[in-house]
Amino acid sequence: ALADVLRRKGDLPGALDQHTKAFQIRQQLAIRDSANPQRRQGVAIAMTAVADLRVAVGQPKEALPVYSEVLDILEELASDERNASNLDWQRTLISTYIKFGDVLAATGDQTQALEQYKNALTRVEKLTATDPGNAGLAAQRESTKSKIQQLAKQP
After folding, report:
1. Is 58 left (phi over 0), alpha (psi -120 to 50) or beta?
2. Per the confidence metrics, is the pTM higher than 0.85?
3. What distance in Å separates the CA atoms of residue 54 and residue 50, rounded to the nearest whole number?
4. Could you read off the pLDDT tens digit of each residue along the chain, which spans 155 residues?
């Protein structure tokens, strides 16, 4: 996609503009097909790209409400019984909790960051319980625990 090419070339404002346009298109498609969870997931993915680029261009505070909205969508999708076993969606939700927590911590909101990390850890532990041999989940669990410990050490 053009946005990815622009990002690789270092044109972050251009990439942000392209991702914002992609988000708007996905949002319109999701509105027209509101019963389709894949459309809603597409909106969440596009919004995540916008939030990530806001952070990259030095606008972390502007990314916070976007991440929050993404989490609303992903939590709803992940809690639906039909989607509860979708590992990709669960992992996307976990990574979004972590990204949101990272940005909250970077903007000085340690309390909310800790809450997001704990949300991620709860999800990771549930997935790990169903698949104890999954090395990726185990690594994610340990990484998330480390973030919680690091944040707890800060004044």
Report:
1. left
2. no
3. 6
4. 766 777 788 878 787 777 677 767 767 766 666 777 888 888 888 889 889 999 999 999 999 999 999 999 999 888 876 666 678 888 899 999 999 999 999 999 999 999 999 999 999 998 888 888 999 989 999 999 999 999 888 76
